[in-house]
Amino acid sequence: MKVFVTTELFPFTHGGIGRAIANMLSSLDSAQAAQAAIVWVGDDLDSNRFASVYPQIKLIVVSKLDYELVDARGICYPPEWAFTDTEWHWRSVRALQGLRKLASEVGQLDYIEFPDWGGLGFATTQEKLLGREFDDSVVAVRLHTVDSLLADVDSRLVDKQVLATYDLERKALADSDYVIAQIPEVGHAIKAFFGFSDEEWLPRMHVHAPPVTLDFGDVAQEPIRACADTPIVFPSKIQYLKRPDLFLRGACGFLRAHPEYRGNIVFAAHSSPNAMARLQRMVPPDLAGRFVFLDNVSPIERARLLSRSISVTASQFESFCLSAYEASLAGAICVLNGNNPAFGGSSPWRDGINCCKFDGTAEGLAAALAVAYADGVREIVEPPSGQSPWDTLRPRPAPKSVATRPLVSVVVPHFNLGEYLPRTLDSILASTYENVEIVVVDDCSTDALSCLTIERIQTVGGRLRIIRNPMNLGLAATRNVALQHVRGEFVLTLDADDLIGPQFIELAVNALQCNPAFDFVVPQTGFFLDREEGQIGRQAAFADYAVFYGEARALGMYENRFSTATCMARTAVLRELKYREELEAYEDWDLYSRALAAGKRFIATNGIHFFYRRRANSMYHTPERVARHRELYHALLTGKMVEAGDVKLPLYVLEGGEAVHAAPGALEDEVQALRSQLAFYQNSRAVFATRKIVEYLKAKAPWALKLARRGLQTVWRARRRLRS
Questions:
Q1: What start-end ranges are recorded for coiled-coil regions in this protein (predicted)?
Q2: Which of 339, 450, 535, 651 is buried most, with the most CB atoms less than 10 Å from its CB?
């Protein structure tokens, strides 16, 4: 079974991803189609419409309502509202659950293909690394165009969501079995953009382009011959990456150089009103009558227009550019940006033969238009062809499970938490993995209960050891002391008031043994209050959640999205890195960022395996701690550098950039406090549920909202009369 996981599919949605998948499905014969499936991550695809277009393709719709908070193994998952950085993380978990559902119905999934956009394959790649599922499946990510690349060239604001999406997209590409590049140069461009080495990228890169089909008309026998009335068309979406501004300037240059040309310059593309208005303002007044803006042109009108036009692709990056192939096959003369990797030397596009290329400048475009107008091209393009990846790629050799069960050292730093320590130890001893030693390091506790608890635990012996610091050293130094005493091959760090899930140690050890290139396994986190402790394992909901990506290269610069202090790591790696003892806080965040800089790799679970106790008197949730965040964050950045070419700067310049836009003076703390309160209410279950109910009613039963509004107004008027 070959599976395409997607949020787009032609003809139900717009977008190049959906069109490429549709073309690949259309190329399958009857027997192949019967062994193909779509996993649709969304809510708005009608199964009857799908069956009418793709009668032999199996469909799995993964709607929001189908999301499982607890799976068949009893593992809990964060709800939608917990994914506060980007919805793509949650969508990737939904995609994983959809694949599970499909596998339960049809059995083995031989080939699973994700788009690169949004990192939709993130959760599935992590699950495969954990050894839980898909060992015998090829998990591939096709390069359509990552959102992160658009953020790098588009005129948009960069926020936390953009940074989180970058991390997810890169991680999905890094951990997939194969990367499908539609043109070799595009694969090399994405490799360079994300900073992958040749060794980790090229052996996994497979080149395959989707078929090209025409919706209207037959493939032309030869290109048109341009005349004075031939329209010059911009067929791409109007966004910065597509460079409509460059097209407009180049077209103006051509018009002024060729007064005998009588045709129109046509924008036949989707656009927002603001983008269209900006373009219209750029048109010189004396040429305004020569420009035509067709925002809502129908597909058949667009196809007919392109077939008799000079079609210009001005964008600086495309993964394949189906529209250019479609235009050429329809008979258009194609003018292409020669700096675009999709039209590079390995592509079938040949300057002067089946296209006219320009150098990426407005002057170069005007000159290329002149050549296309005067000489045209000799041939239509021949789209690339080759064997499909689902026919040629085989699963990468699955890591062999290691029969030995190495010792795991669980490190528990302790200071005045005697009330909670026994329950923390109980959670460790309840693990399904039995070869565990527990090293409790007491950092000179002072309260009577904690001292008594340590004394009693010390008499237990066996797998549990107590180390006493001669003086209070602080959390970071206490963890380093523990690392000096551990005997295990792996270390699990666990604070003295938190709990670990019974399956996590075994899951993490197996993952690290089977994947020697990785060094950390990160659990997703559920927060609980003291009164909720007894409910853990019996209900899916938690007071709050924290979700992590492991390798948080971008967002990890500003927030800790690597892991909590609790994760499984190789002992040798932690001893190599050590915790920075001069830090009052964020010592775990600092260690993970240094680990990433040193080339260490992370695996993240999708399920919740770590339970963080939110105590009322916790030092991590006091107003004083929030107010000191800037100071503590500055300490985290010290000693690190950032480089851009020959420029090398201390990393604290990131903090300075934030400060420029921060609220001045005493207002800053107030603004931060208000933001925190707003985030709390936005993320609360009641508000989240209310918003979702309203959204559902707007879509499915708008009359119910009107009825409810009228009812409330009637009640309010009656209440006012009674009070008066």
A1: none
A2: 450
